[in-house]
Amino acid sequence: MKKVIAITRGDGCGPEVVNEAIKILQIVSDFTDFDFELVEAPAGGEVWKKYGTNLPEKSFEIIKSSNALLFGALGLPDLPPGTAESAILKIRQGLDLYVNLRPVKLYNALRERCPLKDEFIGEGIDLTIVRENTEGLYKNIGSLEEDKAENIMLYTREGCERIIKYAFEYAKRNGHSKVTSVDKANILKPSQLWRKIFHDISKDYSNITTEDIYIDAFCQWLIRAPYKFQTVVTGNMFGDIISDEAAYLIGSLGMAPSGNIHPGRVSMYEPIHGSAPDIAGKGIANPVGTILSVKLMMEESFNSREIGNEIDKAVEDALQDGRTKDIKSRELKTLSTIEMGDLIANKLKGRLKA
Ligand code: NAI
Ligand code: MG
Questions:
Q1: Ligand 1 touching residue 45 (CB < 6 A)
Q2: Which has the closest alpha carbon to 86: 74, 97, 76?
Q3: 227-255: per-residue pLDDT in tens?
Q4: Can you name the CATH fold of 115-250?
Q5: pTM
Q6: Which residues are part of the catalytic machinery?
Q7: How many A from CA of 272 to the centre of ligand 2?
Q8: Domain ranges (residues) in the chain
Q9: CATH code for the part of the protein at 1-97+257-354
Q10: Which of 148, 172, 227, 310 lies in disulfide reach of 122, CB 3.0 to 4.6 Å?
């Protein structure tokens, strides 16, 4: 199966982690029926400095005509905030990528790196945040004046319905027995519409139990009993915030993958972290979040749970042998970005050969 994958390496540590994820694509290409053609689609701050745009037309054309996009991270500390990063919103909005899928899983090997005490980790952390990705405050309706600024939190019935349906279907596909909706319906009108639609749609999924939790209470539940959650569906702003909180529970921001998805269309896969200027160029960034984004790509865009599973197992195996600095262990060798990528690639090669 031939697939064209657009590659946006981006800024800061983006190119470093994307390089390691490409090794994984190469191995999948070598040892399975998949055949990947990689096409570069530059975007971000460095590109802005050269061409005066953060997303050249040609790059967007390449992305639109690909089967999926593998994306690093954008942002440079010497540019005003948003100069590079707005390219991400252009891609999300331009391709109508309404699902932001953010699985958060604590690998057994990393239990000691979780900042929670053992009793709070309980039976473990394995939840997925399904974040609405095109509406709400990020629709960018508003104004900035000298003495006043506003953003409008706009949600439509169509926007709520499609993301909530996706969450229930995701739960069903993954054998989850509960979907949690996070909102602020005690204060916000868009949350009241959201909650009504959540309850209406839940009636079509009688095998799945549901619960509603307010965003502020959810933030404490997430550190008090993260093992309680399976699929969590929420709006754009809340989803952005809780997914960074959740990501740290699994050891490092560098561990968490994400998909920006419109089922059946070109979708974008990226680690949830940014360009990490504090560690960029030092060869110490953790490539696992980006490698697990390839896992998500295999599962969600290319319909291959088997290969997704093999990548997951390869990461799990690798974490027993070596770690990057952000998740380092006294007993194991601390590895560079490249060494960690090679270790996972070798584990995957071994599994796919077998
Ligand atoms: P960040 O996610 O880049 O970094 C936060 C902290 O996590 C830093 O201490 C960093 O060293 C650490 N970290 C991040 N990725 C890591 C990895 N792979 N391995 C080990 N440690 C890692 O967030 P920050 O500093 O707020 O933003 C930096 C730039 O990235 C900004 O320009 C921001 O706008 C941009 N950004 C871009 C995103 C994207 O491209 N999707 C997402 C988030 C931020
Ligand atoms: Mg974020």
A1: no
A2: 74
A3: 999 999 999 999 999 988 998 899 999 99
A4: Isopropylmalate Dehydrogenase (3.40.718)
A5: 0.95
A6: 138, 184, 216, 240, 244
A7: 6
A8: 1-97+257-354, 115-250
A9: 3.40.718.10
A10: 227
